[in-house]
């Protein structure tokens, strides 16, 4: 068959991603801070755009009501919230990793027994501040770095140029937690001095504020803070020197080594808890940004839920048609006319895109509230399994649109602030063939079972599986283990060892 070149005409339809359409898609997944930054750039680029004056009722007209009948419906500490009460690794990692001293999960202290738990939870002091004259929040917000703060004290503490040089080298070796990670012998060799001189300078630096700076390990950090408080007596020295026993909950041995009774040990633990294990962190990164909810859910007077957009997260822009009418007749050439026409088109498109974004967020949030009404009324145990497709089908949108809308958006509910994606959980089948269970609700059940277990009857993963199946949850043992590990709850073997140590300490 001969090959020949020829022309063919064909008509077809296809979706084309225009720049405006791509912009609308991007706006959907922006957080409110990213959106603010994007709008600032657009206003700077487009002379026809301007911000609208804030109005108190900016989002009130977006409210929607759902026909739902609602019913009546702690600060942690650093011993609880830091990761890692691993007895197996504590002895070899204690000097190099702070995190290994502290509990795996915030619920660990609840399993310590009534006396120790009460003391663990309540302690005098300022919640971890090691110096009365310094406020961690103020230091972080002021933008002062750890190096700057230490440098000021070095300039005041040392007159001798050599000592000041050594102190500067030590300060350069501080990590973000305020610990000296550099080797003193290496510093001495590098500066052409002896290790004794470096040690003397280090001793002076360890008196700097906040107390605990320039420590070489956790024990030294705590000792420096206790010395400032005049609490580094022999008993406390013994406790700080045996932190690995504290990690293993070996309270019986600690009482013997410290030469104290149970009441004194409880007081000492409270003092340890009130210290700051990472004093340098007050200078790192600045203050944390507060989460601002994009959607607010309230119980209405008529018994329904009111879903509203948060006006603070809805930047409003206006198109200045008056300015366009003034300048367009004075366009000198076609390029200027095209520029003004493009600015007007982009401005109109942006305002429509922002309006569509707000409506889409509200529509998705309203459907989530409708689907998860039982959660709002009764709590996490009533959280329903939910996926993106279910919401997308209910509101007539594509699944990818729902995914973009729920990314990094937050909802304020009577039960707290939740990311929108929190409400989308996997489904776990019911053993009796009834309604499926949410994976988040099952996690909560597992945590409660372990929290309520008795010291003489620690629940294994298999026992938890049996209990869940009796309550209608069809779940595998490996799934229970995965959920337990995800909540940083130790295995039954480790929990049993801890409870035995507590029982021995109580005798």
TrEMBL record:
Domain (RNA polymerase sigma factor 54 core-binding) ranges: 139-323
DNA-binding among the record's keywords? yes
**What range(s) does the RNA polymerase sigma factor 54 DNA-binding domain occupy?**
338-497
Please name one Pfam family that this protein belongs to.
Answer: Sigma54_CBD
Q: Show the PROSITE patterns listed in the entry.
A: SIGMA54_1, SIGMA54_2, SIGMA54_3
- The residues that cross the membrane are none
Q: Does the keyword tRNA-binding apply?
A: no
Q: Where is this region: Disordered?
A: 53-75, 98-136
What PANTHER family would the database entry show? RNA POLYMERASE SIGMA-54 FACTOR (PTHR32248:SF4)
Of which family is this protein a member? Belongs to the sigma-54 factor family.
Name of the protein in its database record: RNA polymerase sigma-54 factor
């Amino acid at each position: 068959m001969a090959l020949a070149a020829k022309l063919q005409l064909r008509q077809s339809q296809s979706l084309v991603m225009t720049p405006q359409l791509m912009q609308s898609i991007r706006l959907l997944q922006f957080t409110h801070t990213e959106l603010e930054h994007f709008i600032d750039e657009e206003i700077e680029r487009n002379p026809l755009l301007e911000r609208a004056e804030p109005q108190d009722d900016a989002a009130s007209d977006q409210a929607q009501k759902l026909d739902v009948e609602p019913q009546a419906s702690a600060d942690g500490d650093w011993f609880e919230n830091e990761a890692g009460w691993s007895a197996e690794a504590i002895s070899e990692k204690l000097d190099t990793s702070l995190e290994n001293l502290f509990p795996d999960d915030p619920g660990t202290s609840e399993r310590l027994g009534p006396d120790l738990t009460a003391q663990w939870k309540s302690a005098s002091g300022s919640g971890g501040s090691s110096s009365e004259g310094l406020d961690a929040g103020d230091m972080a917000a002021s933008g002062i770095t750890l190096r700057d703060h230490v440098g000021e004290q070095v300039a005041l503490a040392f007159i001798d140029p050599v000592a000041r040089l050594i102190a500067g080298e030590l300060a350069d070796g501080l990590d973000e937690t305020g610990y000296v990670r550099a080797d003193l012998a290496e510093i001495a060799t590098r500066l052409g001095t002896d290790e004794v001189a470096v040690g003397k300078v280090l001793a002076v630096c360890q008196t700097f504020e906040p107390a605990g700076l320039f420590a070489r390990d956790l024990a030294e950090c705590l000792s420096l803070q206790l010395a400032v408080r005049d609490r580094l007596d022999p008993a406390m020295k013994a406790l700080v020197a045996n932190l690995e026993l504290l990690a293993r909950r070996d309270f019986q041995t600690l009482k013997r080594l410290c030469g104290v009774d149970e009441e004194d040990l409880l007081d000492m633990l409270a003092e340890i808890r009130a210290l700051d294990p990472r004093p340098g962190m007050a200078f790192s990164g600045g203050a944390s940004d507060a989460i601002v909810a994009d959607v607010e859910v309230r119980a209405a007077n008529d018994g329904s839920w009111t879903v509203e957009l948060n006006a603070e997260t809805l930047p409003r822009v206006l198109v200045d048609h008056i300015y366009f009418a003034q300048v367009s007749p004075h366009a000198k050439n076609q390029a200027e006319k095209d520029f003004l026409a493009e600015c007007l088109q982009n401005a109109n498109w942006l305002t429509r895109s922002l309006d569509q974004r707000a409506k889409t967020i509200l529509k998705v949030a309203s459907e989530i509230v409708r689907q998860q009404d039982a959660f709002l009324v009764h709590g996490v145990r009533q959280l329903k399994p939910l996926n993106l497709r279910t919401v997308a089908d209910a509101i007539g949108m594509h699944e990818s649109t729902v995914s973009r809308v729920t990314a990094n958006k937050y909802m304020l509910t009577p039960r707290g602030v939740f990311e929108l994606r929190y409400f989308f959980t996997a489904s776990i089948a019911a053993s009796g063939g009834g309604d499926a269970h949410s994976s988040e609700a099952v996690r909560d059940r597992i945590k409660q079972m372990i929290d309520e277990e008795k010291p003489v009857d620690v629940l294994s993963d298999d026992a938890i599986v049996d209990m869940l199946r009796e309550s209608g949850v069809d779940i595998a043992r490996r799934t229970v283990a995965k959920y337990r590990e995800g909540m940083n709850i130790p295995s039954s073997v480790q929990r049993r060892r801890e409870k035995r140590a507590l029982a021995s300490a109580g005798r």
